[in-house]
Amino acid sequence: MLITNILLLFIVTSVPTNSLIPEDARLNFTELSMKYGHSAEEHRVTTEDGYILTLFHIPGKKPPVLLLHGLNDCSDTFILRGNSSLAITLANKGYDTWAGNTRGNKYARQHTKLNPDTDLSFWDHSFHEHGYYDLPAIIDYILNVTGHKTLKSIGNSEGTTDHFVLGSLRPEYNEKIQILIAMGPSAFFKHLTPPLSLVMEMGPLLDQLSRPFKIEELFREGSIEKNFWAAICNRNALFCRELLFQVGGHDPKRLERDFLPVLFGHFPTSGSRKGFIHYFQLGMRKRFARFDYGAADNFERYGHTEPPDYNLTQFTMKTALFAGKNDHVCDEKDVEYLRTVLPNVVLYHLMESKTWNHYDFVWGNDMPKTLYPHILTLLEKF
Question: Quick check: 125 and 161 in contact, CB under 8 A?
Fold first, then answer.
């Protein structure tokens, strides 16, 4: 209790007044879209297992494009850069732009029966459920509303993992996506380096330590850990940036100091503990496999003591892979390996800059010059 009170006191005395926080750090997706010249619609989609997801839609005359975010992130990540963001860029080009949210984040924290604050089963999900339930519901909804038979999709980090699950387990959706543009594609982690490799190795221990406390949701809006993170980052944004760089790769040029308050006003958002643990398992096992529940539970669920690999030979949608030379999460060697596994890779592009890291695909300040020309070319071609 003493520690909790000290943390709360620190938070109260450390968070700067609203006058010191940039406006864009406080605006939601709809408000940011309006600020940068576009009226965004909010749509609610219910998955077959009852999760209610919010989609943001910026109408356009060109065919629909779906944007899907990464781990403990949300649709805001594609609009934080304002006029330089991917969502606004696509909208300015006339694309019918849809920004999705997967279960558990601040825009998808509802269920037809479960209460996220009291029902721990609400948080029993990882990227597996995102790919098997959320993404099909999102795709079918967009196609139904627009009248199109197919769409184009752009995924970042976990957003790519969700697609790999979808295409391997529900192959009928391979035909509904004309092309997947996969930025920082996340499936194999054979070449991790410290400190991320050490964090992955600690995954089982962290899992065991958190279970007795029934910690299933991480970074809930208004939670102690979320407010503590916000307080630290508002006081010392460069420190928080360095923590990110320890995970994703060091590139201060593209993640400049003035942008950090906006970023940390939106990231991270809420997500499940199980989501992290599943990624830890991938890093430890060097396989792209389903969740490992232990030998006994695995046998009951899968019919085997080991969790089965996702069958990526079933993933036949056209795919463009974008990798960074300085991406510590998705090493270029791992993306190269993924390239050999996927049946229908139409482009493999290694970003030219030697410092391009995992975050530059969504937050880099030079995306309009270095990344978007490639994306727009692919969207026009396919």
Answer: no
- Is 358 one of the annotated active-site residues of the chain? yes
pLDDT in tens, 13-64: 444 445 578 999 999 999 999 999 999 999 999 999 999 999 999 999 999 9
| Cβ–Cβ < 8 Å for 77, 105 | no
Task: Assess whether 38 carries a catalytic annotation.
Answer: no
Cα dihedral 336, 339, 345, 348, rounded to 10, equals: 0
What is the CA 135 to chain-centroid distance, rounded? Answer: 13
Amino acid letter for position 66: L
Closest CA to 55 of 39, 41, 35: 41
What proportion of the chain, given as a percentage, has pLDDT over 90?
Answer: 86
Q: One of 126, 153, 157, 270 is an active-site residue; which one?
A: 157
- Tens-place pLDDT, residues 149-175: 999 999 999 999 999 999 999 999 999
CA 2/CA 21 separation, integer angstroms: 29
Each residue's pLDDT tens digit, 189-201: 999 999 899 888 8
Residue 280, number of CB atoms within 10 A of its CB: 21
Cα–chain center distance at 42: 19
